[in-house]
């Protein structure tokens, strides 16, 4: 039996160290594109007026004053800062050094401030409401991204996150309506996610079918199945089978009254708090436990893992199932928290955005969570700007989250390498 310990394998594989000696110009080029876009919008398409940012709610401990930013002056400052950030990125990559995550984060925050100031000129933006909505839209993406990280780290590409979302959403709505308990519905979502993952694991691990093809087929099948059951079962009996039972919000005493961050993090439902816990548990377990070491070993070098006594097939099968259970929680969020009653294809492609968060986050739970938060913020931005009647065209706002997703994955992620054996079936010699 193996005596591997969590420290037996170097934290950074040799292949990763080799990547650091090459240059990837993706991030600097993406920075330059956003800088040019900012100059065109903020300086070329000038908008007068002052944008007011509301920082506090009525029940907060401290009533922070509103902050007003003049649109044109803020645009000039933002463009200058973005140009400096672009120059720093080109300088670092030119010296074969990666662009640090904090540089990318600051660049993104500066651009968002400039865009909000320009798009909402003359209007008031309730910042706590904007962030609360962003967290809400991010929660299913966080669960899906965590499931995707676990699955790909063990060597299986989980394209079926969308199907796991839909199965979790449908099952949780149905079971919660039948039992009158959101908690039972949540357990049903876990089981539904596992069952979908069983299909993915069986075909991709045992029968060696291409993992991407299996995932796409599963998504199409679950979409058709839940759509059929909705129209034939739930829709005719909505008062009994699709009531829309939801978890109530739980306010953490004292903490929920902290300005800005209080309502964002400490005035949420059980599923949101479970997302916080899931991120911490998955991160710790993946990098600090024997389970995580074995999982990563199977995803990097299954032959070596098999040599030291690790059951590669079993490890992959059960961890893909675990990933499906976590993704099922993301599906439950749609019906037990955000919306209530199940509707056909209500996840609207969120599973694919969660998969993009996995890639953008470089197969790391924390970074994938941050990517999910970014995509959730971009999605909620269209709702906020639409609510304040921003003159920005609605078509642009609708495509905004997908544009951010494309740029993030294709540009800002830079050069990275996924698990070496991800997507590759293992045949024991």
TrEMBL record:
Membrane topology qualifier: Multi-pass membrane protein
Pfam families tied to this protein: BPD_transp_2 (PF02653)
TM annotation in the entry: 27-45, 72-94, 101-121, 127-149, 156-176, 182-205, 212-231, 270-287, 317-334, 346-363, 370-390, 396-414
Repressor is among the record's keywords: no
Localization terms from the record: Cell membrane
Top-level taxon: Bacteria
Entries under InterPro entries matching the protein: ABC_transp_permease
Major location (coarse): membrane
Record key words, sorted: Cell membrane, Membrane, Sugar transport, Transmembrane, Transmembrane helix, Transport
Name of this chain's protein: Simple sugar transport system permease protein
Organism: Curtobacterium salicis
């Amino acid at each position: 039996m193996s005596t591997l310990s969590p420290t037996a394998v170097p934290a950074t594989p040799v292949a990763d160290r080799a990547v650091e000696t090459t240059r990837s110009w993706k991030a600097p080029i993406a920075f330059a594109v956003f800088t040019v876009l900012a100059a065109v919008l903020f300086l070329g398409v000038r908008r007068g007026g002052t944008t007011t940012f509301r920082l506090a709610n009525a029940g907060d401990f401290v009533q922070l004053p509103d902050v007003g930013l003049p649109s044109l002056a803020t645009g000039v400052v933002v463009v200058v800062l973005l140009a400096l950030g672009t120059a720093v990125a080109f300088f670092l990559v030119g010296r074969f050094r990666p662009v640090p995550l904090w540089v990318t984060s600051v660049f993104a925050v500066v651009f968002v401030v400039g865009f909000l100031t320009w798009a909402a000129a003359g209007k008031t933006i309730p910042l706590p409401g904007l962030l609360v909505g962003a967290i809400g839209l991010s929660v299913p993406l966080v669960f899906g991204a965590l499931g995707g990280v676990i699955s790909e780290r063990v060597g299986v590409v989980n394209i079926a996150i969308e199907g796991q979302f839909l199965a979790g959403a449908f099952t949780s709505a149905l079971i919660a309506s039948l039992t009158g308990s959101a908690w039972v519905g949540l357990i049903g979502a876990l089981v539904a996610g596992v069952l979908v993952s069983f299909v993915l694991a069986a075909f991709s691990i045992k029968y060696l079918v291409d993992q991407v093809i299996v995932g796409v087929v599963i998504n199409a099948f679950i979409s058709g199945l839940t759509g059929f059951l909705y129209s034939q079962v739930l829709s005719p009996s909505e008062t009994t089978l699709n009531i829309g039972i939801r978890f109530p919000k739980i306010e953490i005493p004292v903490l929920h009254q902290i300005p800005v961050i209080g309502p964002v993090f400490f005035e949420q439902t059980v599923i949101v708090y479970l997302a916080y816990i899931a991120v911490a548990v998955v991160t710790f377990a993946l990098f600090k436990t024997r389970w995580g070491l074995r999982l990563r070993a199977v995803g990097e070098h299954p032959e070596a893992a098999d040599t030291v006594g690790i059951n590669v097939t079993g490890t992959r099968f059960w961890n893909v199932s675990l990933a499906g259970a976590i993704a099922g929680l993301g599906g439950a969020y749609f019906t037990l928290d955000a919306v209530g009653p199940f509707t056909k294809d209500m996840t609207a492609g969120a599973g694919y955005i969660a998969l993009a968060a996995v890639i953008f986050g470089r197969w790391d739970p924390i970074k994938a969570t941050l990517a999910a938060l970014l995509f959730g913020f971009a999605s909620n931005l269209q709702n906020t700007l639409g609510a304040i009647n921003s003159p920005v065209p609605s078509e642009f706002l609708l495509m905004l989250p997908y544009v951010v997703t494309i740029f993030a994955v294709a540009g800002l992620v830079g050069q990275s390498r996924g698990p070496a054996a991800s997507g590759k079936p293992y045949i024991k010699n």
